[in-house]
Amino acid sequence: MRLKGKVIIVTGSTMGIGKAIAQKVVAEGAKVIIHGLEEELGMQVVSELGPANARLHIEDIASEGAAGRLVDLALQTWGRLDSLVNNAAIVAASTIYDTDHAFLNRIMEVNTAAPLFLIQAALPHLIASRGAVLNIGSINAYSGEHNLLAYSMTKGALMTMTRNLGDNLFREKGVRVNQINPGWVLTENEIARKKEHGLSDTWYENLPNVYTPSGRLIFPEEIASASVYWLGDESGPISGQVVDLEQFPMIGRNVPKDENTVPLK
Question: PANTHER family this protein is in (predicted)?
Answer without folding.
Answer: EG:BACR7A4.14 PROTEIN-RELATED, ZGC:101858
